[in-house]
């Protein structure tokens, strides 16, 4: 559960509530950007941990981290499975 | 991918390891603790421990959020889950952690409504969607996770969602480090500090380790080369007789952390006088509870929980594993009675636990694995 997974912001959902839709390992779900300074922008890469964007990261770094995670195998798969399973319940609409 | 391929091809890793060997202070044995379970996982996965020069050892630390929850708190969670009308929500890993009367998964098979969530916001959403039920969220984790719970609480209050409560088990990283440094059984020469915790708290909270304990600290990222480089930075400090806090993970970690995250924690939570840790006992000022203003959302105030300290399973050596005193494969039940499918201790449950990491990646390494009989 402690993994930070790089995700790309694909849509701003509610600028007031600082929510955005992000693509995480092929799954789209709503994440909170309440911990980011300023507004998130579409196209930006962020490090997502338990549904929150913890920090912005650059694209190259995101790609490297994603590969590393894919490489970690089981832990990453489990985390992704959790995102997938919960995406429908939690506003992945 | 470039970084990993380079690591795999071994060139940079080899260069770093030979630099490491050169940097080693002659005639000294060094023990460095990697505090974070994410680092433990990467170290076993990539066999980093086997690249180290003789005399240099990595010791696993307490930084696995699932692992440090004591049996008594699991029992409290099970009791909350069995409350009538409660939907008990938890991160997946916590479901399988055995309590003295079974795990949350067992509670579910006894009829409790236990659901896995990925984020505390999912739990809040469940509460919103099911106003006739009471949703309790099992909040665990170090400072990486705490701000998420804090923001969720702020939203619950702002949106007036009253059928939502948090069972708060958040812990802070510095006090257990102090406890480990104070303990006489383990001599540590330096610490590899966790990257994502430090994204929230910054590198400043580790200053006491350098100033009071005269030990170097390097905040490290999670890629294999990050870890190797951090080890090299520590060894160089030790060889030069320095003890400073250095930051290897500058791409994410700043000296003062994430102010928005710290502010959210400050608004919603406060330090408990004491909190019990698996294997480390009760540590003063190490755990968080909800502030009085959030009593309506505090599961410990809304429901009766047993709140009893329960000793670990007799065979379990997680406590020693978490303090770096015992390696996973030295535990008598490792890989036999205790496996990821049927865990006895927490360190075998979470993928960040040292036992689970070693079980997945280390078992085939003959020189380390005890013959299983
Ligand atoms: S093998 Fe199991 S019981 Fe032994 S220390 Fe690891 S998790 Fe605990």
> What about the largest sheet of chain A?
5 strands, antiparallel
Give unreliable regions of chain B as ranges: 1-9, 366-373
- State Rg of chain A: 12 Å
Q: What structural class results from the helix and strand content of chain B?
A: alpha/beta
What's the number of helices of chain B?
16
Largest sheet of chain B: 5 strands, parallel
Task: Give the tally of β-strands of chain A.
Answer: 5
The proportion of residues in beta strands of chain A is 35-45%
Small-molecule components bound: iron/sulfur cluster
Average of per-residue pLDDT values of chain B: 89
End-to-end CA span of chain A = 23 Å
Based on Cα principal axes, name the global outline of chain A.
Answer: globular
* Low-pLDDT runs of chain A: 89-93
Q: How do the strands of the widest beta sheet of chain A line up side by side? A: 3-2-1-4-5
Sheet with most strands: strand arrangement of chain B: 2-1-7-8-9
Strand content of chain B: 15-25%
Element order of chain B: H for helix, E for strand: HHEHEHEHHEHEHEHEHHEHEHEEEEHHH
How many DSSP-defined strands of chain B? 13
Proportion of helical residues of chain B = 25-40%
How would you describe the overall organization of this protein?
The complex is a heterodimer of chains A (93) and B (373). Chain A has 93 residues and is of the alpha+beta class. Helix content of chain A is 30%, strand content 35%. Chain A has a 5-stranded antiparallel beta sheet. Chain A is globular and about 35 Å long. The model of chain A is unreliable at 89-93 (pLDDT under 50). In chain B, the strands form 4 sheets. In chain B, strands 2-1-7-8-9 form a 5-stranded parallel beta sheet. Chain B has a 4-stranded parallel beta sheet with strand order 4-3-5-6, sandwiched between helices. Chain B has a two-stranded antiparallel sheet with strand order 10-13. The model of chain B is unreliable at 1-9 and 366-373 (pLDDT under 50). Chain B has 373 residues and is an alpha/beta fold. The chains are: A alpha+beta (93), B alpha/beta (373). Chain A binds chain B through residues 1-4, 17, 30, 32, 34-37, 47, 49-52, 54-55, 57-58, 61, 63-65, 67-68, 71-75, 78, 82-83, 85-86, 89-91, and chain B through 1-4, 36-38, 41-42, 45, 64-66, 91-93, 116-122, 125-126, 141-142, 144-145, 147-148, 151, 155, 196, 199-200, 222-223, 251-252, 258, 260-261, 264, 350-352, 360. Iron/sulfur cluster binds next to helix 15 of chain B.
